[in-house]
Amino acid sequence: MNSEFVQKWQSQVKKGTLAFILLNVLRDNEFYGYELIEQVKKYTTIEIAEGTLYPLMNRLKKEGLVTSKWVEQESGIPRKYYQLTAIGVETLDEMIEYWQSLETSIKKLTK
Amino acid sequence: MKNIEFKDKSAQKIYDNYFGRIRRTISVLADNDKQDVLMEFNSHIYEGILNNSNTNEVEKILKITQDLGDPEVVLKPLVADKKLKQATRTFNPKHIFEAIFLNIKNGFVYSVFAILYILLLGFGILMYLKIRYPENTGLFLKDGEFVALGMLKTNENVTEVLGNWFIPAVFFSALTLYVLLTILLRTTRKRKKE
């Protein structure tokens, strides 16, 4: 087995699906940055610098898929909450549909 | 932004140093964007500390900052994008220059923009030449047909048609092209997928 090739491929897949994972995490709940990363870690074994999540959230905001708001905390250090927009929900539905069709094809192929 | 205070001096130093690196990385951004990034990373670190059961502050802050990654690397796409947004909103040449520089590796299209903006400098050179060599610089026609825009050894056959209007005409042409180019840059940013 060429483990180096597999590792590279895995890293590409993870990178390519990160936005999909984030949108799924935000589907039913709003989360602040740290919490969002904890959720991502809970569901996946993604090994990226956590800081890269913030530019990615900025991109999802730019695309109109999420919105954010600062919420003051008693500690004096506010949290920035992210939530899906209506466009975000529609986009995610489309992505899920594609993912499922891809999954079906892969299953047929690897049978 | 409310800074996090540590009891351990070394932990405080690590935190301050990390924020110093973030500040340097985002120094080209507008104040509200800077504030937003700093507050978000501060919030992340604060929540990370609360959720980490380790009692050693140095180990805690080290783990959190290591997991976050190098600000210079992780914040690069965010800085490049926000700078471009600021530049195309304000039309400020300084911001445009910085934005193009930060985005030049993000696509061939930004190299094209860089060349087009540099070409605009040519208009400035034309205005200078008109002041320095008024007789030999201008829009030259021969029998009603275009010969040259720029510097020419004048002779009887060609006529310079703009005269004193040359500098205002060149200035407004450059300004119009600059505005159009910047609007195009704004559209490119919106359409471009990372």
Describe the protein's topology:
The complex is a heterodimer of chains A (about 110) and B (about 190).
Chain A: H1 3-25, E1 31-32, H2 33-43, H3 53-62, E2 66-71, E3 79-84, H4 86-110
Antiparallel strand pairs in A: 1-3, 2-3
Chain B: H1 9-25, H2 31-50, H3 57-68, H4 71-74, H5 76-90, H6 93-103, H7 108-132, E1 137-142, E2 145-151, E3 159-160, H8 166-191
Antiparallel strand pairs in B: 1-2, 1-3
Helix pairs in contact in B: 1-3, 5-6, 5-8, 6-7, 7-8
Q: Mind summarizing the main beta sheet of chain B?
A: 3 strands, antiparallel
Strand order of the largest sheet of chain B: 2-1-3
Q: What does the radius of gyration of chain A come to?
A: 16 Å
Net shape of chain B? rod-shaped
The number of helical segments of chain A is 4
Q: Helix content range of the residues of chain A, please? A: 55-70%
At CATH level 3, the topology of chain A is Arc Repressor Mutant, subunit A
Rg result of chain B: 26 Å
The assembly state of the depicted protein chains is heterodimer
Shape of chain A: globular
Q: Helical proportion of chain B? A: 55-70%
What class, by secondary structure content of chain B? mainly alpha
What would you say about this model in short?
The complex is a heterodimer of chains A (111) and B (194). Chain A has 111 residues and is of the alpha+beta class.
Q: What does this molecule look like?
A:
The complex is a heterodimer of chains A (111) and B (194). Chain A has 111 residues and is of the alpha+beta class. Chain A has a single domain (4-109), classed as Winged helix-like DNA-binding domain superfamily/Winged helix DNA-binding domain (Arc Repressor Mutant, subunit A). Chain A is built from four helices and three strands, in the order αβααββα. Chain A has a three-stranded antiparallel β-sheet. In chain A, a hairpin with a 7-residue loop joins β2 (66-71) and β3. With 194 residues, chain B is mainly alpha-helical. Chain B contains eight helices and three strands; from the N terminus they run αααααααβββα. Chain B has a three-stranded antiparallel β-sheet with strand order 2-1-3. The longest helix of chain B has 26 residues, at 166-191. Chain B starts with 8 loop residues before the first helix and ends with a helix. The mean pLDDT of chain B is 90. Classes of the chains: A alpha+beta (111), B mainly alpha (194). Chains A and B meet through α2 and α3 of A and α2, α4 and α5 of B.
